[in-house]
């Protein structure tokens, strides 16, 4: 690592900034999710995220020659999984309080841990098993109190289903990223994912699009720009600080959706959410610790 990259305080600041930007993206999506179709949101989010991404790659001298690839099918699979995960994530945000939908996204490390065992024959460790047990226990606590409630609407059920599906799809997408990163430029991986998501959004036109009004258009554009800059901030954060140093600040990001629910959307935090929160985050932390231990051993 070069000396210019070794700036942990700057890396931490960038990681916190990326969490704020991702939260801003989610807030914009939540604000219009009951009116704008999910496929249309995916398209705009991806299209406007492409702008800062291309500028970033161009500044780094990686556009366009850095997009060349020897593994087009690998990119196709990774991008398809990532695009499907984005659809599921936005569908979950549309049906659940923002804090609950965001909490479900923290299951991705748990599912990645499971996928590593099933697909890559990685060792089953105490940390890995503990992370899976805590994460799934958190989901059970989150859902269980409402299973027998007459207020447990179909939309809410589907919100949890889409949230869990997003976690699974993201896990498999991350496994593909791990594989592609051995030979492919990270900028190319991000670029083809955005393109695939745009195409997925366009493919949803027969299932319903609408002409957004000015407020909706502003939210769509901001969602894309926030998402694009968030990815760049996260990428730069890992260039300036070790992943182990940044890990605690990943869990700080749940604060912003909680505040958004309380202050912007006037949605109170349920007892189930407060009980599930430490379990899901604890499971994600154990899975992350296991991943770092394996990288050190290798």
UniProtKB/TrEMBL annotation:
- The organism named in the record is Agrobacterium albertimagni AOL15
Q: Name one Pfam family in it.
A: EamA
Record-annotated membrane-spanning stretches: 12-32, 38-59, 80-97, 103-120, 127-145, 157-177, 189-211, 217-238, 271-289
Domain EamA spans what residues?
Answer: 10-143
- The protein in question is named EamA domain-containing protein
User: Keyword set for this entry?
Assistant: Membrane, Transmembrane, Transmembrane helix
Cellular component GO terms, alphabetical: membrane
Q: Does the keyword Transmembrane apply?
A: yes
